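During the reporting period the student researcher (J.K.) took over the structure-prediction task from the postdoctoral fellow and processed the backlog of single-chain submissions. One of the processed entries is reproduced below for the supervisory committee.
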Amino acid sequence: MRPRRATPVLALTTALAAVLVAPAFSTAPPPQSPASLAVAAADRLVGRETARIHLSPRDRLVRQRVIAGSGGLHYVPYTRTYAGLPVSGGDLVVVTDARGRVLSTSVNQKAPLSVATTPKVPASGAATAARGRLRGASASTPRLAVIAEGAGRLVYQTVLTGSKDGKPSRLHVDVDAGTGKVVRSWDEVTDGTGHGHHHGTVDVPTTRSATTYGMADPGRPGVRCGDLSGRTFTDPDDVWGDHTGTDLVTACVDAMHVAQRGWDMLANWLGRNGYDGNGRGFPMRVGLDDENAYWDGTSATFGHNLARTKQVTNADIVGHELGHAVFQWTPGGASGLNEKGGLNESTGDIFGTMTEWYLNSPYDRPDYLMGETVNLVGTGPIRSMYDPAALGDPGCFSEAVRVTEVHAAAGVQNHWFYLLAEGSRPNDPANGRPNSPTCDGSVLAGIGREKAARIYMEGLNRKTSWWAHEDARRATLEAALQLHPGSCREFRAVRDAWNAVRVPRHASEPAPAQCA
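J.K. obtained the following C-alpha cells:
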C-alpha cells in the first residue's frame, strides 16, 4: 500500500521560487504541540536552507504526514517534484526534538536538478521496453518522471502487474526517455523465503456479526486473516483450528497471534503505533502452494514447508513479512535499488526476531535464526543473524554486497544488529545467543535487544528512497545520539558494530569529539 498522494493547500515561496505545500489529508496539529513545532521548524528549514536540500527554481516540496518517534523525536518527510514531474530520489526527512529544534536532516539528492523535460522517445516505445521485463503482464500508462541522478534523468515509469515464479508481481520499470533503454526496475512484491500449530492454544481477538465470528482483530485495525481470495475466515462458535500443521484455519490462528504480539512489540518496545505507524495493520492470507511467504505491498501471504507438514506462519516468518510493512511505511518507502532490497530483507529479519523475543513462547524459543522451526526447504534455518557466513551469506560488507541477491545481502545488517544487541561473546547458545565472529577481530559488548531495536526503528524513520549501508550507519548513529543525549555508550556501540561488519563511514555521519 502506498501513502495517498498529497494535495497542495498551502504555499510558501522560497528565495529560489520553489513552493512548499502541505498535504490536505493531515489536519493541523494543536498549537504548540510537538508535531506542530516539528512542522514549523521543518518548513522554516526547507524554506531557508535551499542549498542544504539542493532545491532548484523548478522544484516543489510536498510535506507528508509527521511521524512521532521515541524520546520526543519527530520526523517530517517531504517528497519533491520538478517542473510538475515526480522526482524519484528527491525526498528528504527533517528530524526535530519535542521542542521543535531541528536535530538533523536526511537528504537523498546530491545536487540541484537541471534537466530537459521533453522526451525523445514516445510513451509507446517506453511501454514496449518495459513489458519485456514481465511477459504477459498488464501495464499502466507510462508517466514521465525525473530520477535524481546528478543533474537529473528524464524517464518513463511503468507498473507491470502479473505473476513471476508462481507469485504476484507488481514490477516498476523506469525507461530512459532519451534512449528508450530500461535503467532500473523494482518489484513491490517482497519475496520471503485459536488452536495454533506453532503456538498452542491462544486467544485470538475476533469480530462478531450477528451469529458469525470473523478472524479480524477489532482492536488492531487491518489485522485479519483468511484464504488466498482475500476472504476473511469466519466461524459460528469462535473456536478456531485443530493444532495441525496442514490446516489453514490453524495457520491463521498462528499468524493472527504473531501479528498481534508484533503490534504490541512495536508499541511497547519501539513506540510505534501499528505496522503503518498510524494505527493500522494489514491482512494476511494462507494457502500458498509454495515453500515461501511474501509481502506484496498490501498484504502478507504464507505457504508451506517442503515436506508439506507445516504452514510457514511461525513467529519469525510472520514477523519478517510484516516487518516489510514497517519498512514500506517509513519515509522513503520500499522503492529503490538492489542494495535497499537487502536492507529491507534485513529489516524483516530484525522485526521478525524481535517479535519472536517479545512472544518468548515455549513452543518456539527465541533466537537469532530465521525459519528454524518450520524447516522451510528441508535444510534447517534459512538465515543466521549471529553468523551469516555459516549459512552461506555475507556477514562482512564489501562492494559486492550492493548487488548480491537481497536475502543473502541481509546478512551484513543482520550481523550488525546482533553485535549491537548481544555483543560478540554472549556465550549463551542454550538461550539463543551464541558467540558471533566480527570481521575486524574486535570484541564487542551488546546494549540489549530493546535498546538496539529502538535505535534501528528511529534510524528507519529518517530513511530516504535510495538507502545504502552507509546511510543506515549514519541514521542509526544520529538516532543513538538523539535518543541518548549526554551518553556516548550507545553511540560507540552502534559505531563499533558497523565497524565490526566493515560498513564504511558516511561522509556526513556524526563524530562528536567527546565520544571518540
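The committee noted the following: The radius of gyration is 23 Å.
J.K. will present the remaining backlog at the next meeting.
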